[in-house]
Amino acid sequence: MGQQVKFYKKNKLDISNEVAVLTASQGNDYVDYVRNRSNESAWVTTGSVDADLTSLEVDFVDERDVDFIFLVKHNFKAYTIQYWNGSSYVDFSTPISETTNALDVTVHSFTKVSTSKIKLIVQGTMTADQDKFLFQFIATEFIAQFDRYPVIRDPAFDRNLAKTKMLSGKTAVAENVGGFEVTLRLVNTKTAADLAIFESLFFSLDGFLVWLSGGDETQFFTRIKGYRKEDVYLMKCSNDYSPEFVKSLYDFGLDVSMKLVEVVD
Questions:
Q1: Is CATH 2.40.30 the right assignment for the domain spanning 146-262?
Q2: CB within 8 A of 125, min separation 6: which ones?
Q3: 6-143: what CATH class?
Q4: Average model confidence (pLDDT) for the chain?
């Protein structure tokens, strides 16, 4: 059995957080790329070797609650992550200290902490002395996951195409980065916890992270964009909340669906 769809709060160091400051001991000019929600741009060093113990420090300025950290698309074999307790950097309840990592997307969970700073130190790369790179650093809080598996419908990557018919009869197509959208549907459900999740997400004023794979992309017959471990999207519900009883019978379950669209904030 695979992992469920999971939901998390917006990245605490998201690019929209104008207060947070990121500082890297190497490649500092590129460090802000780790918080722009993109898997197409990255923090990368130049001329780095493992002995450098390259560090990346996140300063939220004020304290933020965190219980999950995602490192999305990286080449770190050995690394540690600690948080600031007000006087020094210390380990989380579950220490993050990898020495033989071989995955390019790693996710760490721990007892929630309230902290103003987090520090990543890279001690080694998968290929020795290779330059370090990291596409996304996500520090967040877990919201929930469904008890039942939802039906995943109408996934689409909208490239916001602009088409212009030319005098030659040919068409010029301009495209943008675009965004992702998908509909999740629970059919004939009586699970109170799942319905509570639906309501909470529908009426949330803030965007939230949606992880369709839940961390297990092998549950899908092929590795495809949208369902990979690296695909974590900031989304909101764009449809109306319509909790409808099956066949209009009040002792039956409810059919509910949410259309999720990728958002700016």
A1: yes
A2: 50, 75, 76, 77, 131, 132
A3: mainly beta
A4: 92
